[in-house]
């Protein structure tokens, strides 16, 4: 499924007897489907496998960024240039990203009439049969997961044979229908092999993963209470819970969340925030028993290795269960429930009681062992990724400054023996200037690099490459890129070069 070849398009006139403006194949347009705004798109030649259920005249449309197809009524297909200003004004970031992809294809088509627009192939939905409905519950659940995973895999690995441009997964799911259907399918099958926890689940949201975690817990039917310093995050989560008709409440402090919940997920973005949370939950007060009998799941990814055992001791004194759950994946993978959790600590009892919560957050939870071993493994993996990214970005900057032909390099990048999906997605983000769409942030990346350096100092190890990588990230933050995705290292190094 992952190696499906690209479908290529050639300009063919598509005649539509209509009073509306007539478009031909490869015309760039704004198209709208029910429930969504006008979206940057292109007109395609109808696929033989696609069935137009509407009796009204329609165009077969491909939506950029979303990688989705739909038959769209001619009334809802508008010329691109004439409506660009109107539809881009105040648009969402997802539409802006899709528009950049359209512009890129438009420029190439203008300069090369033989250029072929690369799209992800249309896959017709399978018809339901009695045999499929009679499958066992376990196999049905596995099938749902497999289909959803393969869709995401295709979206993230397809590469244009003409331009060599890596296609990354839809940001925040500008393919909302597909993601929504997958989530609803998960929620239907989850109760068949995972008992839904009826306990109130608390969540503290301060980093790029927290909001997605809250949404997925709500999607799967959990009762959730939340604290976040961001009013915008709280408002979005309230609206989301209302759309799902699910219990959700925002509290004014982490302490109130802890009072009302049995299990607490913590997503902090800085060491200062984490220290403040520990204080508010009463870990530094011997007379405060707020955490007694509760489970605390640390998902902040900025835990200092040299303070782990002190925190573990405090949690044990409070009779609280302290679990590490480190996210392995980008923000988008976590949104899509396609990430993996590395688990450490007193997990067995917590998993029995709250299995549905971990099922809602990730496709897999891998138990590593003790809390500190889990954090160390996570630090090593994040350090390796940071060093890979820094090396890649330096090479891209050198290519751009010396040859002014970055696209020539990226055309063959996917064929290089060291290529992997992580690097490919970052190259794609750099080419399409998605620096403001944060998939990985500087805070958590540098926290892991600092942990590695602290360990090397403790054991008198020479980790010069790690230290140099940390300096590269630090310089980018000081240059004003702290709130952007880590691929903005490219801009930082270009400025310094």
UniProtKB/TrEMBL annotation:
Region annotation Disordered: where it falls in the sequence: 131-159
Domain called PWWP: residue spans: 23-81
One record GO biological process: transcription elongation-coupled chromatin remodeling
InterPro entries listed in its UniProt record: 6PGDH_NADP-bd, HIBADH-related_NP60_sf, NAD(P)-bd_dom_sf, PWWP_dom
Record protein name field: PWWP domain-containing protein
One GO MF term: DNA binding
Biased amino acid composition, Low complexity: 137-159
An annotated GO cellular component: chromatin
Provenance organism: Ceutorhynchus assimilis
